[in-house]
Structures are given as C-alpha cells and as structure tokens.
Amino acid sequence: MRVDLAVTMVREFQRGLHAMFPDIQCSIELYEPKQPFYSWCAVWMDHLPDGLRGVYMLSDPADSRVLYIGKADRSSIGGRLWHHMRVGRPNEFGRLQFHNCQFISGPKASRIDPTIRETLFYGEVFVTALHVEPGELASLLEVFLQTACFALDGQIPPLNDRIG
C-alpha cells in the first residue's frame, strides 16, 4: 500500500469512527514528509513536535510503499523513531549510516529485502506521522492500517512482524 492511499484510508477511518460512535471526538493531524529521515533526524523537533502521539509510517523513497506502521500511544513518535533507527554515524564522506537500526541489525535482518535494508542503512526512509487525539485511539488506527495493507497487498508491511 502506498502512503497516499493510507492517508485517504485514515480519513475514511475517521469518518466511519464518527458515524459509529458519534460521541467520540477523534482528531487526526497529518505530518507529511518533506525529506528523508537522515536529512532531519538531528533536528527532528523541527519536523515532529515533541510529545506527538499517534501512528507513523516508514515508506520507501522510490515508490512511497509503506514499509512499517507503528504507534506511539505512551511515548512520542520521535522517541519511537529513535528506538527503531538509533543514532546515525557519518562515514568517511560525511553520509549518515544507521548501522544499529533495529530492523537491520537484529536477528530478523536476514529476512529483509536487500534494497529495503540499504534504504534503512542510509536513513533514506520517509516518515509520515499522524497525530491522534485521544492517544488511546492510536492502537486502533495502527491495526486498521496494518489490516488494510494485508487486505490490499496480501501481506502486512515488510518490516512489521504482526498486526497490532
């Protein structure tokens, strides 16, 4: 599933939630990526407000395909991104490399497509954030989007281990 379709589905989710539960006020604010992660990770608060709770998607820069869908319902999205990507270190040419990215340094790294692994290694993924209020609904939106990927693509995003 591409990010633009996911964002459209988020709006449908919001309308459907309101139709089924009119007393629940759900606000979802979109923070679209302007640059890949490596270019702004050192000053991430300029791109994602501190304390932002909700759902985030990592996507492939080549085709906007969603690679991972996660949530931050207790901590901030920025904190969750740092947990996944870890600190980038510049190589001899000054280009950041994310050697310790949890997706490519852990025991499941061998199952990741080499192209995706390289994209993560260089921090070239794009981050789309969805600020969800109340934050308790972030889990519901995360599961909805992962399920939509499964329904449309026949599989969950390649970096997710499971739905939920």
Describe it.
This protein is of the alpha+beta class and 164 residues long. It has one domain (3-153). 36% of the residues lie in helices and 18% in strands. The protein contains 6 helices and 6 strands. The protein has a 4-stranded antiparallel sheet with strand order 1-6-2-3, with helices on both faces. A hairpin with a 6-residue loop joins strand 2 and strand 3 (66-72). It starts with a helix and ends in an 11-residue tail after the last helix. The model has no long low-confidence stretch (mean pLDDT 92).
Report the major sheet.
4 strands, antiparallel
Distance between the termini: 17 Å
Order of helices and strands: HEHEEHEEHHEH
Overall structural class, as computed from helix and strand content, comes to alpha+beta
| Tally of contiguous helical segments | 6
Average pLDDT over all residues: 92
Portion in beta strands: 15-25%
Q: Helical content, roughly? A: 25-40%
Give the strand order of the largest sheet, numbering strands 1, 2, ... along the chain.
Answer: 1-6-2-3
